[in-house]
Automatic annotation (TrEMBL):
Signal peptide: none annotated. This is Universal stress protein. Belongs to the universal stress protein A family. It comes from the Bacteria. Residues 1-141 form the UspA domain.
């Protein structure tokens, strides 16, 4: 029985959520599970890169992303399905795995790839999540 579902989305790519959110809603309704919709703000890597951004860039990026994510969930997730939003910074696949563990999720539902990555059957982050997750992973193509 699934109690909690993690749904990672990239707000810049509709393909990461257009088919995924309806499928996650369908799965959540089967067992009365809740959804945790996650957006990861990628890490810039070396600190020298970060020095080119304003000092409050990270906070503003998180604020803006959280507002966009909440709007997406309000628009795409029906009121009869419990859903919350989470925004984190870092390595995309690592943060997805960490969130799934931290939130005690039973299932991760994610897109196989972004539409601009047509040469891949499954995108690099999705593949790593599938390989390393402790939870079941449902990949939507």
């Amino acid at each position: 029985m699934t109690k909690s579902i993690l749904v990672p989305v990239d707000l810049n790519h509709e393909s990461s959520w257009a088919k995924v959110l309806p499928k996650a809603v369908e799965l959540a309704r089967l067992d009365g599970a809740s959804l945790h919709v996650l957006s990861v703000i990628p890490d810039f890597g070396k600190s020298i890169v970060g020095s080119y951004f304003p000092s409050d860039f990270s906070e503003k990026a998180e604020e803006s992303t959280r507002a966009e994510l909440q709007a997406l969930v309000a628009r795409e997730v029906p009121g009869d399905v419990r859903a919350d939003c989470d925004v984190v910074h870092g390595s995309i696949y690592k943060k997805i795995l960490e969130a799934a563990d931290r939130l005690n999720c039973d299932l991760i539902v994610l897109a196989s790839h972004r539409s601009d990555m047509q040469d891949y059957l499954i995108g690099p982050n999705s593949a790593k999540v599938v390989r390393h997750a402790r939870q079941s992973v449902y990949v939507v193509r």
